[in-house]
Specification:
This protein has 152 residues and is of the alpha+beta class. Helices cover 41% and strands 39% of the residues. A hairpin with a 4-residue loop joins strand 5 and strand 6. The chain is globular, with a radius of gyration of 21 Å. The relative contact order is 0.15.
Length: 152
């Protein structure tokens, strides 16, 4: 019995470093993805559309809280222009704080991540609203850079 336990401990001891190495293989990607989330949050809060769109793939699809869907960078830009920049734009300002539910799930060079946001909207008429929302994103790695392909 003692021999079986010793063999089991030896096997587990040999496998643990391999398992830890596999988890660490994606550490650079995880850091890049966390940075991307931070940059998206900052871009939304400052309404810096160039910085925001840099994080998205050319053919990205975004489903917004308003139930509208935008396709491609031009569609995403058009949505934000409609919401903030047109003469009858409904929003005066927007602030968000994003958090992750946990580590992203990797599928090769594709990830799926989920989280929460605390959103504050100021309407053009002065009313203010706060919402706690959920999000789900998919990103792909292209030419060494992560780009969002789907967000809702």
């Amino acid at each position: 019995m003692l021999k079986k336990i010793s063999i089991l401990l030896l096997v587990v001891g040999c496998l643990m470093p391999m398992a830890q190495a596999q988890q660490d293989d994606r550490s650079p990607d995880r850091e890049q993805l966390k940075q991307m989330l931070s940059e998206i949050e900052g871009s939304l809060n400052s309404l810096d559309m160039d910085s925001l769109l840099f994080q998205f793939d050319e053919n990205a699809v975004v489903s917004f809280m308003t139930t509208e869907v935008a396709s491609g960078k031009q569609g995403i830009l058009a949505y934000y222009q409609k919401m903030f920049n047109l003469p009858d734009a409904p929003l005066a300002s927007y602030q968000t704080k994003a958090s992750l539910d946990g580590p992203a799930h990797f599928h090769g060079d594709t990830i799926v991540a989920s989280g929460r946001t605390q959103d504050k909207f100021s309407l053009s008429d002065g009313r203010q609203y706060q919402f706690d929302t959920r999000w789900l994103a998919t990103a792909i790695k292209k030419e060494g850079q992560w780009k969002v392909i789907s967000l809702n």
